[in-house]
Design a protein that fits this description.
4 helices, alpha+beta, globular, about 140 residues, single chain
Length: about 140
């Protein structure tokens, strides 16, 4: 996991970077972030167009491409490392019209009552408005 930003009350946001981390997050939180992570990673891999497709070096740059094209998968942790909230933001944390931002607590519960300040800190870090009405599944 990669450090992203601090949040109030000793909490920290981290980026989920590998399928193993996504699997652990799914297990800890009782939701399906792992499925979304795999699907989005595969889409990013499929969109890769190497400059020299027949050369042995064709996959140099693939991981950087995947990191740029994939949505950001994030986890909020407390001081003890407990998973509190999972988020999926647009690639690069940049607002893209129509992107469905997802922010959930354990078992897909609403994280806003307990983690509103931490979610606001994440939004401020990326320059995004992450109010409850915009984020799936609450803004339905």
């Amino acid at each position: 996991m990669q450090y992203v930003c601090d949040a109030p009350k000793g909490k920290t946001w981290f980026r989920i970077e590998t399928e193993g981390e996504a699997m652990l997050e799914s297990r800890l939180m009782g939701h399906t972030v792992e499925k979304y992570f795999r699907r989005e990673r595969e889409k990013a891999v499929q969109s890769w167009r190497p400059e020299r497709p027949n050369a042995i070096e064709r996959d140099i740059g693939l991981e950087a491409h995947v990191q740029r094209e994939m949505p950001l998968f994030l986890t909020l942790r407390d001081r003890e490392g407990n998973a509190l909230t999972t988020a999926m933001l647009p690639p690069g944390g940049k607002d893209r019209g129509g992107f469905r931002i997802i922010i959930v607590a354990a078992s897909n519960a609403d994280p806003y009552p307990q983690q509103d300040a931490a979610i606001a800190a994440l939004g401020a870090h990326f320059g995004l408005t992450l109010d409850r009405n915009r984020c799936f599944p609450y803004g339905r």
